[in-house]
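Last lecture ended with a question: if I hand you only a sequence, what can you say about the shape of the protein? Today we answer it with a concrete record. The protein is mRNA (2'-O-methyladenosine-N(6)-)-methyltransferase-like. Below, first the input exactly as provided, then the predicted structure, then a couple of comments.
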Amino acid sequence: MSSENHNTAGGDHPALVMSPTSSSNQGQPLSPSAAKPTLELPDDMIQAGWSKCWSKRENRPYYFNRFTNQSLWEMPVLGQHDVISDPLGLNAAPVDPGLDNGQRKRRLSEETAVGGANSFKRPKVEIMPVTPTTPTVPISPSTPGPPGTPLSKIWGSPTDEKQQPPSAAPTPAPYRPTAVYWDLDIPTNAVIKERPPSDALPPHPDVELQRAQLTLKLRKHYLELCQQREGIEPPRDSFNRWLLERKVLDKGKDPFLPSECEPVISPAMFREVMNDIPIRLSRIKYREEARKLLFKYAESAKRMIESRNATPDSRKVVKWNVEDTISWLRKDHSASKEDYMDRLEHLRKQCGPHVAAVAKDSVEGICSKIYHISCDYARRIRDCHSALLKECNISETVEAPEIQDRLVYCYPLRLAIPSPPQPRVDLHFENDVACVRFKGEMVKINRNYFSKLELLYRYSCIDDPRFEKFLSRVWCLIKRYQAMFGAGVHEGTGLQGALPVPVFEALHKQFGVSFECFASPLNSYFKQFCSAFPDCDGFFGSRGPFLSFSPVSGSFEANPPFCEELMDAMVSHFEDLLERSSEPLSFIVFVPEWRDPPTPALTRMESSRFKRHQLTVPAFEHEYRSGSQHTCKREEMYYKAVHGTAVLFLQNSAGFAKWEPTAERVQELQGAYRVSGRTLTSPGPVPATGTGDKELETEREQGTSQETPSTGDTTPPSGVTPAPDPASI
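The predicted structure:
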């Protein structure tokens, strides 16, 4: 018997019941004739939690205690209870002390009725979609409505009770997250100049579904081009880093796919594909594996130089070095692993420039073709979106409101174009997972994070107080980040990796940090943050992309995705903001400590005049929260960092005076960074680009047990030398 069947005759509040399919009785009080006439209980019985209810199954009254979950056919006696007199079997379910009185676990009798506790089959429930014409209540889907509104009445009702008259019920308690990785009560200290709303088109599930499908096709095109033209698999996460690098330059209208970039050929994609030609190299643990890798590289280099339009000199150099290497392999059977790796490094330096020269045009063709397909897809999505708005009589050109030249505390990004009516989107829960479905496409999110999205939406959204568009916007949000991550195992999750909760707590306590420069509604710790997608993230608290966000004062944390071009643009933006502002302004930046070769962003920050302090957290001695934290299991939430993390404090004079990184404060931050017992035994994915140490980290993050990427520069010097140049392995 579900909680809505406990129709109190002498309850604390009158109940309001919403019909999921009709708006005529919305918000109507309970009719006196709708419930069976019952007698009032004595005051001492009511205070003890007893109420007289009506059993629809037995068609007779019974007595229910909302404090102890006891039910009796006979009038209860205070202080006494006979378990035998509980014919409904409601006492079989123990009371969960973590739940309020109204929110009780399902009884064993209900579970067995639908096929067992672990059965996928659920009772017949008609899910109520959220549409502009469907009545809803001004609450969230995961918290109760007005007193007496059952959760099942908001999102659906059992089909066998659809024709039953309204009845009173105790107020169900809101869902309480079991693990919280955020603090949404911290106010912001970030001050900005008042800005106009964004001209981005409002999100819509139909458009987002098309965007996700076309993005998947674009990924497949990239895979096929790499396989057919170069005979290699696409470098891991290279497509995701291409998206990030392109959006730094992109001036197009699509919030996700690049459509107006200069230059057309992406340096990031070109560099990563060239790095894997002719084969992807790995660091090896065992001698025999090193021998096989050397032989494979020699054969691949020879085959490529013979099948491409190479110059006679290139053919001669590569052929001579390959034959010399194969001859050495056949003769020397006592070589060590280090000997094989030294020989491989020498072969790469001799053959690498010639192999790169013959592959250059082909790789540039891959980059160019992917970009032009992306432009075509972005245009198709824009046309579809414009047609949808036109059908709803919504204009894409909106008169810009008058903005005053004043300083205000930062606020979520607003859209200038009104949102069109939203289609049907369904919600149901499978244990601790919220499943949101649109046209057969289901996205899933842990119930803790679904509750977080509800809170962010409540704080940030101003055009939907009745939560009529909440589910459709949640679906668009999760679908967008699914498209960004990719379909591979752990693919893209490192792009959304976050600092551990104790580090955020220390940053706020010691340095006044209240804002994240690179986050999302799914992984943010504060309720104020910048994120990649202004159109769908703004409803959940985003202040828009950081490179277009210009704070005047405040204390900020920056943990950017590990894309070199994005990090370099971030440093330029930091220095510009610190140069212009005389108010207290501070940025605490977390970047990977890549030294082989060093990244331009790290080098620039270390030499910046705004750098006040720098510290390094060693590799494998700290952790990150997974980028898939909103879907992963609790034990998979954290993973060890396989690279050192450089922490740099960039502050202007006023910011340094207010949030100076003193020895005591820095020590507190380092203490918060200590590895906890929650860390996974094998490191999780954190993307890296480039060569040297970065390749080593990337391969470790893929979970390989015996292989990690090769060392050394990806572009060996030209010329032939008579002896191998030993490499530092």
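Comments.
1. The CA atoms of residues 286 and 337 lie 7 Å apart.
2. The chain has a mean pLDDT of 78.
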